[in-house]
Amino acid sequence: MLEHVRIVLINTSHSGNIGSAARAMKTMGLSDLVLVDPVDFDPREPNETSVAMASGAQDVLEGARVVSTFEEAIDDVAVVMGASARSRHLPWPLMHPRKATAKALDVLPSGQKVALVFGRERTGLTNDELAMCQVHIHIPTNQEYASLNVASAVQVLAYEMRMGILAHQGELDIQYEGDWGVSWDNELANQGEINGFMTHLEKTLVDIEFLDPTNPKQLMPRLRRLFQRAMPDKVEINILRGILKMIGRAQDK
What we know:
Blueprint: E1 5-10, H1 15-27, E2 32-36, H2 48-54, H3 58-62, E3 65-67, H4 70-73, E4 79-83, E5 94-95, H5 97-104, E6 114-118, H6 127-131, E7 135-137, H7 150-168, H8 172-175, H9 191-207, H10 219-230, H11 234-252
Parallel strand pairs: 1-2, 1-6, 2-3, 4-6, 4-7, 5-7
């Protein structure tokens, strides 16, 4: 489905931003880039700045399509979503990126295209251009400094699209299986090993006079809760008991 997500940049004035947008796209698995009347860019001969900012995504740059009008860029698109930080006098469907991704998933599984549209660096999208977007996307940035570089905005929306699509396809959890998102290198300590460690720890704390056995308060239950929450593996428990053993030897000297 990622191949059905199109990034549309309108009248981009700085070729470096096109290169950065291409990089943002490639990191998220997107490749369909359409440029509407760019000020200084030719995909047949990407300039040095755009190639440098693409940082390995030159294939996305060279595969970009340049058109003269916004209408051409979205002619075969089912759902057009325009990124805009500006409020409008006329109410329009407004969504944050995650909700917009859910909306895109209404059509992407059937093979229809979705366009994410980004305007000029200084002024964004015009009212007429926003009127051609079924959905307006607002990235909930810091209100005290809401300015996002166009490539940064592309990265945010491309990321949300990738996450939503992978989750929809059931591929996201597969990449992060298990309690920790990776296959752990050692078995978790069993409760017998945990209990043995806690007994050893309590004895050591009494020996170094950190724990008063006549007035223990909640020290040991709190420490048990800490280590239970950490879910140490067998090697980690052995390391901790080794430390306690060395503390005992130091006390005996």
